[in-house]
Design a protein that fits this description.
alpha+beta; 4 domains; three-stranded antiparallel sheet; 11 helices
Length: about 400
Amino acid sequence: MAWNEPGGNNNDPWGNKKNDSGPPDLDEVFRNLQKKLDGLFGGKRGGGTGGGGPGFPGKLGSIGLLLIALVVVAVWLSSGIYIIQPAERGVVLQFGRYATTTQPGPHWHIPWPVQTLERVNVDQNRSVELRSQEILTKDENIVEIDLAVQYNIKGAQEYLFNVTDPDTTLRQAAESALRETVGQTVMDLVLTEGRGIIATETKDKIQETLDSYEAGVLVTAVNLESAQPPEAVQAAFSDAIKAREDQERFINESEAYKNGLLPQARGDAVIALEEARAYKSQVVNAAQGEAARFESLLTEYAKAPEITKTRLYLESLESVLSSSSKVMVDVEGGNNLMYLPLDKLMGGGGGTPQQPALDQIKQGASQFTTPQASGSASRINNSRSRSRDAQ
């Protein structure tokens, strides 16, 4: 039966008699509760019979409270021990204000509520993306760009306290820098070979803006993932791209033809120059030899003019007769021409003569050139008979 049911026990759980005429006395309830707690921790109670005397239970209660307090304090102090990982930095706040930044390793701070700890991963690669950004170029065209910015934290304190939302700040700074860079570039460069330059300039401007905010953020990479014209002009732009590619292909083909033709032309030119130098050397050497021969001949002529003239005449006659197979000799003062069949004298056109024919011709010519032979017919007949004998 419950203690508060009608007709049941008139005592409540705290030992108070139930007063049917009204609610229980709250003061009495609290007094009874206090007595029970004193009994639990060894507090003073009248009529104690313990062996330690009337004050011994009170001393035991004080020691128990002290031990409990020490344990609580020890647990509270030990809760301030923490370890910072190599990729982290610890930011300690004292009553909500920045106190210090701790490096990787074990540390201790005054536990809550005096100090609190914020862990910041400074080596984690974070990213912010800008999708489908329509931007006006320098030549008043519109391009649609997708950009990705990668960053990490270089200052934990600045990252936590200098800006309210670092990711939003970075996204806005990236969009502003991208619009500024693309706005200073023509459309063809944005869509073709200028994308790398745009990404580099955008990265520098983003970092400059974040440094001015002291945001504690380091931009590691900016990737221009796509750049294309709006969908409405996509077909026309594809045709322009194809025409540009054809132009590049034709230029490359012409360059290849030029690269194949020029070395050959240079080689031919070198060969022609070498041949010209060889011919020059040959002609110069021949001329120098002729000049030296003439000078030596002039010296001999000065010593013996008649002999030299005769030798020159014979050498000239030998040179002429060596390329002719028939010679007609007109004797001065005579009516007959002397015919010398050189082909017969040489052995029938290619055979070996029985006697050197040129020596005979030289001998006959020397007789005709001497003054005494100019009017002597007998010597001519003798030469003719010797020629016939030689045949």
